[in-house]
Amino acid sequence: MGKHYKMAIILLSVVMIVGIVGCSSSKPKMERMDFQAAMELKVPEPAVGDRPKILFVGNSHTFYNNFSTMFVNIINAFGHKSKVSELSTAYYSLKKYADTQDRGGALLEQALSTQEWDFVVLQESTNLTLADFAEEEMFPSARILDEKIKASGGQTIFFMTWAPKDGIKKEKREDIQTQMATSYISIANELDGLLIPAGVSFMRCAELYPEIELWDPDGHHPSLAGSYLAACTAYAVLYQESPEHCSYIADLDKEHALKLQQIAAELVLN
Length: 270
What we know:
Layout: E1 9-10, E2 53-58, H1 60-63, H2 67-77, E3 83-88, H3 94-98, H4 103-114, E4 119-122, H5 134-151, E5 155-159, H6 173-190, E6 194-196, H7 198-208, H8 224-239, H9 254-269
Parallel strand pairs: 2-3, 2-4, 4-5, 5-6
Antiparallel strand pairs: 1-3
């Protein structure tokens, strides 16, 4: 793993791969979420226009497998236009992006103050979404960033990521995902923000179609199928359209791609 990295706001960025180090929550275990249950998700208001400007802000979970490119390819396959940019780097958290003295925070500040974005998608570091850390780390930073996004005329979207395949320490992935989902849903509701529930999509798919491998061999990052599922989920949320039968399938098996598209559509639109 390299010691140095370059950070920049770039169109459809590709960045070096890094891992995520986990730690478990010491708070009483939450009741496990029913990942097959219906979710009530806020819809974009105003709706996506003819050529929305979308900025993804996050870390390796955002840039892995050229996620932004996948997202744009799905948009293009349905005949839409968009301008998608990305600010992402290894190990970054919302706290760093909220700090204008940090290089990443300074870049985001510049992006928000000099350009108009219809949507800004925020992805938090996995550890900081857990019960022990969300209140003190994730939520205050999200509030700061949300205020800036709204001041610039944009809508805030939270990109709920997925638990590690094997969980964290003694906690199973379903319990970790429950903590993550609870945190993302809580802050999205508080700030009246949008939510891309990719982590729930992962849990649904893992239960319904265990033959589809959603995780990279490192157990943390997404496989190609995992990133595609997340991109389909993002498309369904932003465009309020089903990704089913999309002609772009990211080199996946057609049958698997359709199953992933259906999971995203059923979760977001049903």
